[in-house]
Amino acid sequence: MSRIIAGAAGGLRLTSVPGTGTRPTTDRVKESLFSRLEAWGMLTDARVLDLFAGSGALGCEAASRGAAHVDLVERDSKALKVAQANARMLNSAVGSEKVVAHRGSVSTYLSAHHGPWDLVLADPPYPLPEHEVTAFLEPLVGRLGPGAVIMVERSTRSPQPTWPQGLHLLESSKHGETTLWFAEEVHAESMTD
Predict the structure, then answer these.
(1) Cβ atoms of residues 78 and 59 within 8 Å
(2) Is 50 exceeded by the pLDDT of residue 192?
(3) pLDDT digit string, tens, across residues 61-98
(4) How far is the C-alpha of 181 from the C-alpha of 22, rounded, in Å?
(5) Alpha carbons 136 and 186: distance in angstroms, whole number
(6) How confident is the model at residue 193 (pLDDT cuts 50, 70, 90)?
(7) How far apart are CA 54 and CA 21, in angstroms?
(8) Which of the four pLDDT bands, split at 50, 70 and 90, describes residue 22?
(9) How do strand 47-51 and strand 117-122 relate by DSSP bridges?
C-alpha cells in the first residue's frame, strides 16, 4: 500500500495495482525525488505529466505538494482503474480536480496533447529498451515550459537514457536498485552564451 508522503493530502493511503505487472516507486525514492523537486521550486502551480503512471502515486504526490494540474497516462486497464480511483481520492482530499487519468499509450497521448508541461515524471517499465525510452523523450522537446524538468526513473543496471537533441542531463541520483535521471530542455539562445 502506497501513501502520499507530504502536502495537502499527506498520509492519504493510495491503492496499489494488483499483481506484478507494475513496480511502485518506494517511499524512500519518492521522498528523495520530491525533496529535490521542492528544492528546485518545481512543484508550486506546476503543470505535471506523469507517463507510465501505474497507480498514479507520483502524480498524486505532485498534486498534494502544490502542482496545479496533473495528467496521468497509463495504457494497462487494471493500472488505469487504480490510477483513476487514486486520482478521485486525491482530488477529494485537496478539494480540487487537480489529477486526471488518461487511458492510452505514451506515444498516443503525446501525439494528441502538446503541453506545455513544467514537470514530466516518467517511470517506464525497467525492461523497456533504451531506444524506446529515447522515442518517448523526443516528442517532449519543444513542449516544455520555461525551466521545466524531466525525471526518468530506471534500474541502476540500465545505462543513462540517450537524451534526444534538445535535452541535456542536469543530474542523477542512485537509490539502491533505482536511479533517477533529471534533464532539461536546451534552448538555442542558451547554446550561444
Answers:
(1) no
(2) no
(3) 999 999 999 999 999 999 999 999 999 999 999 999 99
(4) 20
(5) 17
(6) very low
(7) 9
(8) low
(9) parallel
Do 182 and 151 touch, CB atoms closer than 8 A?
yes
The Cα 136–Cα 183 span in angstroms is: 14
**Residue 179 reports pLDDT greater than 50:** yes
For residue 32, which phi and psi values (nearest 5 degrees)? -65, -45
Residue type, 136: F
Task: Compute φ and ψ for 169, nearest 5 degrees.
Answer: -70, 130
**Whole-number Cα distances in Å, 135 to 35, 96, 141:** 28, 33, 11
Q: Which residues pair with 178 in a beta bridge?
A: 155, 175
Tracing cell 516518467 back to the chain, one arrives at 122
> Where is 116: in which H helix or E strand?
none
